[in-house]
Every structure is written in structure tokens, then in C-alpha cells.
Amino acid sequence: MGEWYFEYEIQVNRPGLLGDIASLLGMLRVNIVSINGVDEERRGMLLKAENEDSIERFRSIVSTMENIHVTKFRQPKVRDRLAVRHGHYIERDADERNTFRFVRDELGILVDFMAELFKKEGHKLIGIRGMPRVGKTESVVAASVCANKKWIFLSSTMIKQTIRNSLIGDEFSANNLFILDGAVTRRSSDERHQQLVREIMRIPSTKVIEHPDIFVQHSEYKIEDFDYIIELRHHPEEVITYELIEKNEMMSQNDHFGGFGGF
């Protein structure tokens, strides 16, 4: 039994339109798993059928219906499932197809999106951009919990500045999720930390890097190496800049070492 994602744009919103589509699916023995509006004029459905012939017949019939325009009909992707679940389609950059944009009000769908990515086995390199205190680290940790993954901080400023230079026991497991702050790692002069990062990057596991643009500076990695880039903003018009991020990082380092007087 296979699943398909069917999405259509309403051309004429007449009474009974959805009922007609549901009746057609019923006659063809195609089940509706879930349904939701994914835009003001679009609806999405997850469908399930025992044989592909029924799906092809349905696709052929709905493509001739005058009141709707079929926009998607395919094996469901992560974005499709989340669109139906949340009633909202994740925004993707038109030029950079691996870049996905969220605002803070969409933390729920962001967590679900990342959790689906984390559930997939093998190497994945995910970068997350955003200004301080927008919810980057908290969202990554929440998604790890949803995906039932153990997370390991290699570098972070979530509670206090963390810079790991070694791991023990099962912390090296490829089933773990590794999180690092690109700004903290780039500024670290500890060669043991840098060597640990290089080792982890070679493990076939999921790595999440906050501030990926800072991370790739003076390193062997490029932005093109990232499988996904996620951008999180307080509001859609917010510009993500690194001046404040690096200033906050310097302040965090000073606090960690007791201020400049600690030297």
C-alpha cells in the first residue's frame, strides 16, 4: 500500500467541491489519511491506496475538473507531510533550494521539520542561521527529543560557553546528534577541540551547526557542503547579520574567563 501527496488550487470555490473529490476517492478505494488547507486557496491531502491503478485513475479524472488546478501529485516529501499537519507550507528559498525559512511563530513546524530530518540515518550536515535568542538551540534540542536522538554539544553558549575537546564511551555513536556553534568553534584556539570537530565531521551521522557562515571561515568546509540550511528570524523582515553575533560571542568568552581581568 503506497502513499501520495495530492494538492490542488481552488479555481471556483463552490459548495460541495471537497465532497465531490472525497466521493471520487471513495469510489476508487483510495483512502484519505489526512487533509488540510495549506494556503488560502490550496488544499493538500495525504492519500493511501492498495494499488497504483486507482491512484492513476484518480489523477486522470481530477486533472480534467474545471473548478480546481492540480499543483502537486507525488510521493510525499517531508515538506508535504508537514504542510498537511500544520496547514502551512514551509518557505524555501527560490534560488538556494536547500535553504528553508522560518519565523519564531513557526517554532512548532520547525521542530517537526528538523525531527523528520534527524530520523533519517546517515550523514547529514545541517546549518542554522539566526540572531541571538531567536530559539535556534532550543529548537534543535526539542527536535532531537522528538526524533528520539541523544544530542551531544561540541560547542555551545546555551547555558554557559561549552568547548569539548574529547568524547567518551558511546558519545561517538553515529546514532547521536552532534551540535556545535560555528562562532565558538571558529574562535577556539584549542587544537584538541578542532581535531574532535574534524573527527565528528567524518562520522556518518547528523551534525547541526549554528552560524554555518562563520564556521566555514578559515576552515576546510564550504557552505555548499551543507545538505540543508535553516534560517530562523523573529519576523520575516529581520536581517541576519554577524556583527552582533560575534560581539555576543566575545562577551560570552569574557564571562567564561572572568572578564579581561582574568587574564
Characterise this structure.
The protein is an alpha/beta fold. It has 2 domains: 83 residues, 2-Layer Sandwich (Alpha-Beta Plaits), CATH 3.30.70; 173 residues, Rossmann fold (3-Layer(aba) Sandwich). The strands form 3 sheets. The protein has a 7-stranded mixed sheet with strand order 5-6-13-7-12-11-8. Helix 3 packs antiparallel against helix 4 and helix 4 crosses helix 5. The protein starts with a strand and ends in a 7-residue tail after the last helix. The C terminus is likely disordered.
Describe what is shown at a glance.
By secondary structure, this protein is of the alpha/beta class.
Helix proportion of residues, in percent? 25-40%
Overall domain count: 2
The rounded distance between the terminal residues' Cα atoms is 66 Å
Number of distinct beta strands: 13
CATH class (first level) name of the largest domain:
Alpha Beta
Helix/sheet category: alpha/beta
- Percent of residues in β-strands: 25-35%
CATH architecture of the largest domain: 3-Layer(aba) Sandwich
Topology order in helix (H) and strand (E) letters:
EHEEHEHEEHEHEEEEHHEHEH
Low-confidence stretches: 256-263
Number of helices: 9
What summary fits the major beta sheet? 7 strands, mixed
Rg over CA atoms, rounded to whole Å, is 23 Å
Organism: Lysinibacillus telephonicus
Protein name: DUF3388 domain-containing protein
Pfam family, one: DUF3388
InterPro entries: ACT-like_dom_sf, DUF3388, UCP021288_ACT
